[in-house]
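Board notes (copied after class):
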Amino acid sequence: MNFDFKDKKITVIGIGLHGGGVGVIKFLAGQGAKILATDLRSENELKESLGKLKELDVEYILGQHRTEDFIKADLIIKNPGVPENSEFLMAAKNAGVAIESDIGIFWELCPAEIIGVTGTKGKSTIATLISEILKTNFPQVILAGNIRASVLEKLPEIFSQTEVVLELSSWQLADSKNHKKSPHIAVITNILMDHLNRYDSLEDYISDKKVIFQSQKKDDFLILNFNDTYVKKMADEAIGQVYFYSTDNLLIKELNSNIKIGAYVENTKIYFGEERKEICDVADIKLIGKHNLSDALAAITVACLKNIPAEKIRIALQKFNGLEGRLQLIIEKDNVKYINDTTATAPDATIASLNALDDFSGSKKIILISGGADKNLDFMEFSKAIKEKCKAVILLPGTATQKIKDAIGNYTVKEAVDMKEAVESAKFLSEKGDIILLSPGCASFGLFRHEFERGEKFNEAVKNL
């Protein structure tokens, strides 16, 4: 494909709310393209994104898609959230119009080696932590991808010596598979039940995750979570060198030239490699929970492969307090902690957070705010964790809420019409020493524009108590 976009008629499908579509449009405008941007959302719903584009010469079709905008274009660029079987994309294909994605273009134009991170949960934390550690040792580090920052918007800043860290969703990987490119260092965190509203099966979901390493070369690296059954098996298909990381003392009985030991925990310390290089104490990691410890080990493994001194790794870990909406302590009022975990958009993610806080606070001290939009997921294990670890649950409106109620059965359940009522109900039920946790286990659409708005509404409601 010719990547000269000047004077090309390009239709961008999906402006979006997270910055990806905005970044694509800004990049194309800088390249001199003639841009038509279309989104099923209304102008009011997109006002924040459109405000960032108001100086650009862009034609907008909002609240609908029109077939003519797809069959008469020179190129379509799709948002990762747009499914491949969209009738408008199919119309473009039938008309012989090329379809691309921002990540696909990035793979072709990026002049630097890439560190890529994927998995169901933890990828934002790992990608951010890798970038923070790299900053201690390299002059220029770029963090982008599925982390509310478009890869194309960052492209002009990148040179051959730049350290590039990308968070990659399964949808982004699916969009880039035709480019046959993989990161020099690829990290896979875990595989949990998620996005089954988009995929026909878990196997299809896993297949897209594997794209991150399927075009690697022998001198590339694949960093895998030894404690995840699905991820561990991927070592059998690896082309590059495999490094396992683990929250346990990592002894691999069948070590071969392609499988090596990454970062692992032994007693209270973290080591790297067969040579048992001591990196830091577990206590240097400030994040709560075993899943966050696992995320830190992935980042440490990458840092060691980049030859960053242990002391610099330790200092970066000590300074890292986590990301917005991920077991984020908002405030403590009247000896009750309010924690925002809005990015827990699947049942397994909430279960991990409940386990982490149960270890931290003791049993039956959590009042959970949950519920929302269904992604065709099962809530039976979720309900078991709630009954075991929570004193009550407040449910927000959404298509998954009745499924959760049915799974929980006879339990302390209250329903709330909005976040304000949910927080007030949780406060009424709380006692000293309790934790009020927003960790929905569901998607946010319907009641909120996205999970970050859901988290913002929680923070606002807490501060207004």
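Comment from the instructor: The chain has 17 helices and 20 strands. The mean pLDDT is 91.
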